[in-house]
Design goal:
heterodimer, A: 414 residues, mainly alpha, Cytochrome Bc1 Complex, Chain D, domain 2, 3 domains, 40% helix, B: 585 residues, alpha/beta, FAD/NAD(P)-binding domain, 6-stranded antiparallel β-sheet
Chain lengths: 414, 585
């Protein structure tokens, strides 16, 4: 398929700019582009209808409104078929479209700016081989004044510094490869780094966990308590490659990332990512939280033993690779309990991969347990078997329950 | 009628055999389309642990089974009666929907005995000629032919058990009567409950060799050879008649579908009922199937191969409706389609205790201890007046409150005294079950009903069946052995629940319907050959227990699956290269 489409696409681009292009169109370059497109997980955001991958139209929920992703297939009118490599690089490196208008950082150009020109050209080459789809996304639904793209000029001045990744000469080549992938195409921080009120990364807290679309993307720095400090590099590779390891399984948005992106990344690159993450400073272990209320813990224990223990076991050891162990589980001990609460409310499904095709899932309990009961059982799992984290309040459960309900009835659930 | 583009393989029905054939044939590179009359069902969406354990919904309101309003059969005990349609399911519970009855089975996964596959020649040689009306036949396939296929299914499922015979070496703690197996079970036996342990002790004291029954319920976490993962059983007591929400019972959903559904050369169409198989009698080929979808649209799906996977009852019916093969005629004994319908004969003995706590609600579908001394030809039948046998087992499958209320002999059937008896005995009763073979008989058969029709206007299947003297004598013998062991279990009292005739289609017994499209070595006496290939149309294969020439004394699923793998192997290694009859008649 690829080979049949490729010459036509190239011919088209040659007709547009007969002089300027002297692109590398080798198989190696194309293959590199495909792998980078996978690593950057372009398909997840730029696909609304699975039968038309990369044709855009998916609504991305942000605190400022909904942004509908553009078509990045090579259609000349509605996609990026008419773009030159320079145009594409400008988008990726500067966050500006060919007409000079600025992108919103829902497109993670603050990360893609770190990519090399050659890598960006390779991505463009690969995207040019996709079947062209003629479709335009609907208009964005953003609050004033953000609906004026000119506003992004100021945002960029405040929060965006274009610049290609600079390797750290004190670190190994593998570490640097991992850093490049995490900070560049992988754009891990887009979810895992906390954001300021204007949606920009708090760069001093990189990868220490962030709230996104009613999930708390966990801390993935090397802390023991709530980061990946207890995971070996091999276990990080397992998780990214197969969607699960002995500690945890990828659900929610991360299930999509694994299915569409990390499961397709070369193992050497996954290992580089693991090596880098194992070296990211998380700012030390969090201070021990106050002891939770004994009554809430007793209530939580009763619910846990009745509803949860069959799979997760009374001692919280679970069934590794199937039903996540909760004892020592970093995800349930995040400083923000949104994810653990959400999983109890609406259940979770581990994304299937070729290596681990079984889509293990936990059922929803929102119809079965009250806010107070969910708060109690969440508090219990956050503070049992050596776990320690701030208690969960019934009011926070209610807020999340209402948010999720709103997202479902408005069709904006993730 | 809309004519669709042709496919390599059309599967009719998508339960265990459909899933196995789809997996094997897509692996061989063929494009496979499965047509399933019911809907899509999966573990986490349809059997979540938060609602799966609902006895009223699933058992009593029959949420997972074939719906008689759409499809049923008529029944009579013998040819002198007029068959009437079964309007509520009773004696057996066929499945519908993705996974078929493989979703709601218990997971009792056995291999038949080597002598079971040569029942006629073996019994004739040992005991002399069989009665004229006993139409028992050899299978045309032997245990040795099937061993690797039994093994493959057991490793797919992650069966929990203890081998009794590894390559001829008898193993302590296993079933010493079983046929040889090439290796140990993939998983160790389930942890045992009290009642089966009491049976085990008494069985041993009375000179038997008890063993943990083989269970397609997982005793530990398991990843099967396809990479699909199963989780350890939690002993929730909701297996048979229920879907498993814990990924702990082996079903098509928990063993094959996660891999199969990802394949690009596989397509599943649900809510599609196949009406008939189209064929070309001159070319001796099936040309495709006609099906109707949920909108009532009819389609012709042309196919290079058609495989019937629609359970033992619908497969022979589809052949009869499509005019494939000669219908069986009990008056002449000629014809093959519908021949040798058989079933299972069961009985049980309760042992009531005063001083034991059984916790029957801690159960699994195949949690039990069995003995095999009285199965098949494991014992000398000289002078007994019957052939065949069955296993005895003490199961602890469930303590579901609407279904399970054991009461002693003298307890009334209703009222306050009945309630007192239930309260007293619910938690302190053990039960020994007998699971007997049914030999085939000239007058037990399937054909098309002359009067009643289904929702699509097609004649219903008509079942003519009763137990014969062979079954009554055998069941009496098994029940007497169970009674001896029951007495040795030293309870307060026992109660013997024997099987009295005639066969009654109302109370639930087993979903072990067999025969109707039987396999064999001769097209005059069988509908399919040893590879389950039709003797009439070389690209038609017929899966399932309808191939059993008679029904041995075990649950059928293990053998159904082994026969499917045996057939798939023949298709992969012989038929694809050289389409035609694999056995020359």
């Amino acid at each position: 398929m690829t080979f049949r489409i490729l010459p036509a696409a190239l011919l088209a681009s040659l007709l547009v700019s007969p002089v300027a292009q002297a692109s590398d169109t080798s198989f190696s370059q194309l293959e590199k582009g495909r792998r980078l497109v996978d690593a950057a997980d372009c398909v997840s955001c730029h696909t609304a209808d699975k039968s038309q991958p990369f044709a855009g139209g998916r609504g991305i929920e942000t605190p400022f409104g909904t942004i509908y992703t553009p078509n990045i297939t090579p259609d000349r009118e509605t996609g990026i078929g008419a773009w030159t490599n320079d145009d594409f690089y400008r988008v990726m490196h500067h966050g500006q479209r060919p007409d000079g208008t600025r992108l919103y950082p829902a497109m993670p150009y603050p990360y893609f700016t770190k990519m090399t020109r050659d890598d960006v050209d390779a991505m463009k080459l690969y995207l040019g081989t996709l079947p062209a789809v003629r479709t335009r996304p609907r208009e964005n639904e953003l609050m004033w004044p953000l609906n004026y793209r000119v506003f992004m000029r100021g945002w960029n001045m405040l929060f965006f510094t274009p610049g290609t990744f600079t390797p750290n000469p004190d670190k190994s080549a593998e570490w640097n490869r991992g850093a490049y992938l995490v900070e560049g195409p992988g754009h891990c921080g887009a979810c895992h780094t906390p954001k300021n009120i204007l949606g920009a990364d708090k760069t001093s807290q990189a990868l220490r966990g962030g709230l996104i679309r009613d999930w708390f993307a966990p801390n993935i720095t090397n802390t023991l308590h709530d980061g990946v400090g207890r995971w070996s590099a091999d276990e990080i590779v397992d998780y990214l490659k197969t969607g699960r390891n002995v500690h945890s399984g990828a659900a929610g948005l991360m299930a999509e990332v694994v299915e569409n992106s990390t499961s397709k990344i070369l193992e050497a690159d996954l290992r580089a990512i693991a090596v880098y993450l194992k070296d990211v400073d998380g700012g030390g272990e969090p201070a021990a939280p106050a002891k939770p209320d004994e009554k809430a813990m007793a209530a939580g224990r009763a619910i846990y033993n009745d509803m949860c223990a069959a799979c997760h076991k009374t001692d919280g050891t679970g069934v590794p690779l199937m039903f996540s162990p909760l004892a020592g589980n970093a995800n349930v001990q995040q400083r923000d309990p949104t994810t653990v609460t959400r999983v109890i409310l609406e259940g979770a499904r581990i994304g299937p991969t070729d290596a681990r095709p079984t889509p293990f899932a936990m059922p929803a309990f929102d119809w079965k347990l009250t806010d107070a009961q969910i708060a109690a059982v969440a508090t219990y799992v956050r503070n049992s078997w050596g776990n320690a984290a701030a208690p969960v309040t019934p009011s926070s459960v209610k807020t999340l329950r209402d948010d999720l309900h709103h997202s479902r009835v408005t069709g904006k659930a993730e | 009628m809309k004519i669709l583009p042709s496919v390599d393989v059309a599967l009719v029905g998508f339960g265990w055999t459909g899933a196995i054939m789809a997996q094997e044939l897509t692996d061989a590179g063929l494009g496979v389309v499965a047509l399933e009359r019911g809907g899509w069902r999966d573990t986490s969406t349809d059997f979540a642990v938060t609602f799966a354990q609902d006895e009223l919904r699933y058992m009593w309101r029959r949420a997972l089974f074939e719906e008689p309003a759409r499809q049923t059969l008529t029944f009579r005990n013998n040819v002198t009666q007029t068959a009437l349609p079964m309007r509520n399911l009773g004696s057996f519970l066929p499945g519908t929907g993705v996974g078929g009855a493989g979703v709601h089975w218990n997971g009792q996964n056995w291999r038949f005995l080597p002598s079971d596959f040569v029942a006629r020649s073996h019994n004739t040689e040992r005991y002399g000629p069989l009665p004229d009306d006993m139409t028992v036949q050899d299978w045309g396939v032997t245990y040795d032919d099937l061993e690797s296929h039994f093994d493959k299914f057991e490793y797919l499922c992650g069966v929990s058990g203890k081998a009794g015979n590894i390559k001829g070496q008898i193993q302590d703690g296993g079933n010493p009567f079983e046929g040889w197996r090439s290796r140990e079970f993939p998983n160790p036996p389930l942890d045992m409950a009290l009642a089966p342990t009491l049976f085990e002790t008494a069985a041993r004291e009375t000179g038997h060799k008890p063993f943990p029954c083989p269970a397609a319920n997982l005793s530990r976490p398991y990843t099967n050879p396809l990479g699909v993962q199963l989780a350890p059983c939690t002993f929730c007591g909701f297996c048979e008649k229920f879907g498993c929400g814990n990924f702990s019972k082996s079903t098509p959903q928990t063993t094959i579908l996660p891999v199969l559904m990802r394949k690009k050369n596989f397509e599943l169409r649900t809510q599609c009922e196949v009406l008939r198989v189209e064929h070309n009698a001159v070319a001796r080929r099936a040309t495709g199937v006609v099906y109707v979808d949920a909108q009532g649209e009819e389609y012709l799906q042309p196919a290079e191969m058609v495989i019937l996977c629609a359970y033992a009852l619908q497969n022979p019916r589809l052949m009869l409706l499509s005019g494939i093969g000669t219908p069986y005629d009990p008056r002449t004994g000629e014809g093959v389609v519908g021949k040798n319908y058989a079933y299972q004969i069961t009985s049980n003995v309760n042992v009531f205790y005063d001083d034991k706590v059984m916790n029957p609600f801690v159960g699994a579908g195949a949690l039990g201890v069995g003995i095999d001394e009285y199965n098949g030809d494991n014992f000398n039948h000289s002078g007994l007046g019957f052939i065949g046998g069955g296993y005895l087992a003490c199961w602890q499958t469930h303590g579901r409150p609407i279904e399970y209320h054991p009461t002693p002999e003298d307890a009334p059937k209703w009222g306050a005294k009945w309630k007192q008896a239930v309260a007293k005995n619910y938690n302190s009763t053990a039960t020994i079950s007998t699971h007997g073979a049914v030999m085939s008989h000239r007058n037990n058969y399937l054909d098309l009903d002359p009067t009643y029709r289904d929702v699509y206007g097609r004649p219903l299947l008509r079942m003519t069946f009763d137990f014969t003297d062979n079954e009554y004598k055998m069941s009496e013998y098994l029940t007497a052995r169970a009674t001896e062991i029951a007495k040795a279990m030293k309870g307060r009292e026992i109660k013997v629940n024997g099987r009295k005739g005639p066969y009654n289609i109302v109370p639930y017994q087993t979903t072990h319907n067999t025969g109707g499209a039987i396999m064999g070595s001769d097209p005059k006496s069988s509908a399919v050959n040893r590879y389950l290939q039709s003797w009439d149309l070389h690209n038609l294969f017929v899966m399932g227990a309808c191939a059993f020439p008679q029904n041995p004394g075990y649950n059928p699923t293990g053998t159904v699956a082994a026969l499917a793998y045996h057939s798939a192997e023949a298709i992969r290694t012989q038929y694809i290269k050289n389409p035609g009859f694999l056995v020359q008649a």
